[in-house]
Structure formats: C-alpha cells, structure tokens
Amino acid sequence: MSRSERTFVGFGFGPIQSGLFLYEACRSGNFDRYVIAEVDALLVDAVRAAGGRYQINIADPDRVQQVAIEGVRLCHPANPEDRQELVRAIAGADELATALPSVQFYDSGDHNSVVSLLADGLAERDQDRPAIIYAAENHNHAAEILADALRARVPAPSLAEIQTLNTVVGKMSGVVTDADTIARLGLIPLTPETPRAVLVERFHHILISRVTLDGFQRGIQVFVEKDDLLPFEEAKLYGHNAIHALIGFLAERRGLTTMAQAAEYDDILATARAAFLDESGAALIKKYGHLNEPLFTKDGYRASAEDLLQRMFNPHLNDLVARVTRDARRKLAYDDRLFGTMRLALNQGIPPRHMARGAAAALLSPEISSIGSEQELRAVLGEIWGPQDDGWTEALIKLTWQAMQEASSMA
Predict the structure, then answer these.
(1) Stretch 68-93: mean pLDDT
(2) DSSP assignment letter at 313
(3) CATH topology match: 7-227 vs 231-410
(4) 307-351 residue pLDDT tens
(5) Cβ 194 vs Cβ 43: under 8 Å
(6) Average of per-residue pLDDT across 144-167
(7) How far is residue 265 CA from its own chain's centroid?
(8) Cα separation of 174 and 324, whole Å?
(9) Domain residue spans in the chain?
(10) Average pLDDT rounded to a whole number, residues 360-368
(11) Do the Cβ atoms of 116 and 11 come closer than 8 Å?
(12) Is 133 helix (H, G, I), strand (E, B) or coil?
C-alpha cells in the first residue's frame, strides 16, 4: 500500500472512538488525516474551537494520566458542506471505524446515516484501492450486518476491495459529566468548552477479524487478528460482559455507587469468581477447548478472569454501578449476557446457579416491575424474551426464581 496521504475516518465520537480507535490511529503515526462524523453539533463546534485538539483521561491501576490528541477534524453529517467533506474523506480513507451505540444506528438518519455516507463515499473511490472498516458495536455479527447494508446500496465492484471487520473490544470506558466528580478525580475535560471528560482504561489488546485483502497492511498495528473471531466474541459477551453485569446488579442491591466498592464485599467477589470460572469459563472451555487457543484452557481462562476482575474493580476508572446496570431489560434478553451465559452453561451440562443470582438481581432492579411470584416472573420474562424454542426456558425460570427467593430472604 502506498505511503502517500493516509486517512482514518470514524463514525461517532464517544469514548470508544475518541479513547481507542482514533487514539490508537494517532498514536500509530501511520495516518496523516483524521475525519470523524459526529451528530452532536455542539461537540463538533467545541473540537473545532479547540483547533482539532481533544484530551482523554487514561486510568492506570495506580493513577489517571491525561493525553492530548491533535489534528482531528469533526464533521456534522446534517451540515451539507460537512457531509460532502465526509464523503470525500471516505472516498480516500484507508481505515474506518464505526463506534455507535448499536448496530441499529447504521441506517438511522436517512440521507445522513452511516450507511448513506459510506455508500456515497465508496461510490467515489478508486475501485482498486483497499480499505477496512472496523465495526465496534457490541454485537457478534456487526461486520456482517454492516456489510449486508452496504451491499444493498453499493454496486459490487465498489465493494471488491472493502472489508468489514468484527471486533472484540474489551476496553472499559465512560464519560464523566458531573463537575464535582471531574474535579475530585482530577480529570481534564474533552475540550475547554466541553463539560465532560472521557475516562478509559489503559488497555489495547483488541481482537479483530483476519484481514484478507491482498497486501493490505493495517495502520493501527496494535490490534490482534484472528481467523475465527466468534469464540472470542462469545468469551467477551458471556465472560467479561456477563460478570461485569452480575457484579453491577449485585452491587446495586447493596446500594453501592461504584464497581470498585463491590470488591470490598467477599460474597459478591466469591459469586463473581465462581460464575466466571466454574460456569462461564467451564462452558467456554468445553465448547472451544479444541481450538488450541490459550484463552480456552483452564489456566488461560483463569488468568484472563483474574486480570479482568482486577480491571473491573480499578478505583481510578470510576466505573459507576448505575452505568453498568442501566437498560436492564436489554441485558436480560434471551441471548444477552445474563441468560445467554446461563444457556451456554446449560448446553454444556453445567448448572449456572451463580449466574442465576446475577439474573435475579437484575430482575429485582428498579427498572423491572415488582415480581412477587413465579407466575409474575414468567410473564415478565415472556415479555422480554418473546417466543423461544431451544428447550431451556423452563430451566432458566426455575433457576432464576430460586435465586430471587434466596435474594429476597437475605434482603
């Protein structure tokens, strides 16, 4: 690939884009231009007023450090001139990254949606020029969903040298908006005119799909390619995400404010470790142990779990219980982190009693209507899950109701 001007294009300017993809692209020294599509007009104006410079806070185990990133161009898709600038940037981009709240946002916004912008930009590209698109939404098939949406809008020749990549983003991050918290933690705002601070952990072991474009060399070289990413995506959802949620909902029941505070409760830590190693880990190892990957061995998974638990409890990350537990209904979906992990365990012959405590705590959260009987539990889960036919619904309900009764007796 030519080392003429190389361009990175991002969609969304949240903590994963600003504190991971764009940060790593700038840190690599392999790009000359950085263009980001962002729908928050005030944020676009603030970064422009700062001369294309923004700052993030990086949480180490023992302190928080500030890092400045410069030379960034934010564009608002609804502004016609900005939209055209984005289209031109896409036409010349080498690496792109979507970092949106969910895959539903790919086609949200009609003429100014991510798919529309990509379609117009790709139509103007040299068809022989390769590019990759990192899909960083928390979905096991985000890249395939984005690729299908593009195929419906873009002629095949314009997509011949474009590859969408799935990602496993195990980096914890957030945005702090409370002025007192920003001051207490010694954080620096995103820009002088932006009353919010991006706080991310120092972690860059990001897994991505194998790049198959002939001769393509990634500018963001720190990421790790895997031939089959699905096992690692499941390990992220049914390991990292599942245990994070379990701790969060148990902490919420105790009235705790931050995830770091949960480390002081031996019962929460014991439940989390047992769910991590004996249920999630044991099931994933049984399912994927044949892959000859260190993660899917007993020692490898234990090391990963212990590292993740330490990171989850990092006090400098200021990970709020309210953030971890928000949108409880989505996290209680049949294939999401709580019941998805329980189903994974049941499929491998492992009773997920510790994970059931996390599901029970989520169902006892303020977001869910009061549940006073097993019949009411069935009604609530039926509404959240919809029709399911894999044979595990009865077992899941029984395990969860037992855990709810135990939780209520100890309240």
Answers:
(1) 98
(2) T
(3) no
(4) 999 999 999 999 999 999 999 999 999 999 999 999 999 999 999
(5) yes
(6) 97
(7) 27
(8) 10
(9) 7-227, 231-410
(10) 94
(11) no
(12) strand
Determine the angle formed by the axes of helices 374-385 and 393-410, rounding to 10 degrees: 130
Q: Retrieve residue 269's tokens.
A: 């830590």
* Token output for 125: 């590209």
Q: List, in sequence order, the alpha helices (H) in 54-174.
A: 80-91, 114-123, 142-151, 156-159
Tokens 């620096």, residue? 188
Treating both helix axes as pointing N-terminal to C-terminal, what angle do 374-385 and 353-363 enclose, rounded to 10 degrees? 90
Q: 231-410 belongs to which CATH class?
A: mainly alpha
Q: Give just the sign of the alpha carbon dihedral 106, 24, 294, 338.
A: negative
**Residues, the chain:** 411
Task: Say what the pLDDT of residue 3 is.
Answer: 47
pLDDT of residue 2: 43
| 158 token code pair | 């314009």
Residue for token digits 């009764």? 405
Closest of 358, 319, 322, 323 to residue 341, by C-alpha: 358
Contact by Cβ (8 Å): 169, 132:
no
Please name the residue that has the structure tokens 């790709």.
Answer: 122
What gap in Å lies between CA 126 and CA 222, rounded to an integer?
27
% of the chain with per-residue pLDDT over 70: 99
Tokens 């993660």, residue located? 295
Report the SS3 class of residue 318: coil
- Please give the backbone phi and psi of residue 260, each rounded to the nearest 5 degrees, phi first: -60, -35
* Two tokens, residue 167: 């990602």
Q: Which region, left, alpha or beta, applies to residue 377 given φ > 0 means left and ψ of -120 to 50 means alpha?
A: alpha
pLDDT at 1: 38
Q: Pick 7-227's CATH classification: 3.40.50.720, 3.30.1360.70, 3.30.1700.10, 3.80.10.10.
A: 3.40.50.720
How confident is the model at residue 410, as a pLDDT? Answer: 63
> Tokens for 233?
């995506």
